[in-house]
# Entry
Amino acid sequence: MTTPSRRHVLGATGVAAAGAATGAVAGAGAGWAAGRSSGGDASGTPGAGTVGASTLDAAVPFRGTHQAGIVTPAQDRLHFVALDVVTKDRDELARMLQEWTRAAERMTAGAEASPGGLVGGGPYRAPADTGEAYGLAASGLTITIGYGPSLFDDRFGLAHRRPEGLRDLPAFRGDALDPRRSGGDLCIQACANDPQVAVHAVRNLVRLGFGVVSVRWSQLGFGRTSSTSTTQATPRNMFGFKDGTANIKAEEADALTEHVWVAPGDEPGTASTGGAWMAGGSYLVARRIRMHIEVWDRSTLQDQEDTIGRDKKDGAPLGQSGEHAEPDFARAGPDGAPAIPLASHVRLAHPSNLGGVRILRRGYNFTDGTDGVGHLDAGLFFIAFVRDVQKQFVPMQRALAAKDALNEYVEHTGSAVFACPPGLKDGEHWGQALFA
Ligand code: HEM
# Structure
């Protein structure tokens, strides 16, 4: 089977027809591969950009109960942007969200942002697709949007629609936040298995939003640091440790209901008042965490393992064997002290230390050049999805900020929180429920 390329896949017939023609599969994370020759142009000639078919090339369904990009098995690449709305016109904003929906649906299916976007507008118009993903496969692209607390100020008449759960985060001990890497009215999280596809998606949405939004900050991630499905191997973070072992996984339906999805009734309101529109959505917490890798790289293996509380090679809880063994916090080490140290990261972040709280982590490694004084500016772009920020992320981060041995090596340099609305049914578009 071959995979859809973003050449004229959806050009004349539209997304629905293409979905039908290619046999779209429902369900979070399920992908499909089209029967069209990849890289082929309108005449059916395979193009130079022909790509081989693989599950990494396949498309992820755009519509569903929840937005894609949350429990979707984490792709390898990220482009995340936070945007400020620069128009004062509510209708312009609503219109842009509608246009974003059309373009996002097309791009996630492996098509150009608009029909015939590359050259179809003719020689005298700016092309409606920027072109750098032309010929590339859908690459598992997901586009997830969120609304920041500042969107609900008095500019667009949305103050009465703000979910109570959407509030700026409190300050945490040790925060070194840069306001130029924090906050935002809107966010777009684009994840894909090809970085060019993720960047293309963000670029084209920003382009469509010209005059309505401007980019406030942006973050590229080059490797996932979490698995979000039991079908995935656990990746490693920039400290060389397996990260995501104890994460909530897509297959844990009860845990998702309890810890990730906003439930009907969580937010007071009706279809036109309050934050009831968030049911089926989730809150996204983003923290840009600089990791002082040069300091870490000079610390001993034992220090590193004691800091995390897990074995570096296999990811097993200290004193135990097997990555997925449930940590035994009562177990003593050879010196009689707890095998998993009291200040270790996994001990402090474990649900048993936090009244049962869990979160879904979906972060990415980053390296943003140097810090100007001879070190790599590297770290973890931490992303978590939670049902209730105040009850889940806030107490967890407070516990970590107070005592985590990891604090010697990390610094939080950016922060934001967004309300990610639920998924879209056929015919619906982003912003529809919010502006109702
Ligand atoms: C650069 C910063 C961080 C690094 C390097 C890091 C690394 C790790 C590693 C290696 C693990 C063990 C494997 C696993 O279960 O995934 C882990 C677990 C975990 N981390 Fe982090 N982490 C960081 C920041 C955070 C932050 C900011 C939070 C939340 C506020 C967090 C929450 C968790 C949770 C909930 C677990 C699972 C605990 C369990 O149930 O066993 N981490 N982290």
In short: Strands lie at 77-85, 142-147, 186-192, 213-221, 223-224, 282-291, 360-361, 364-370, 376-386, 410-420.
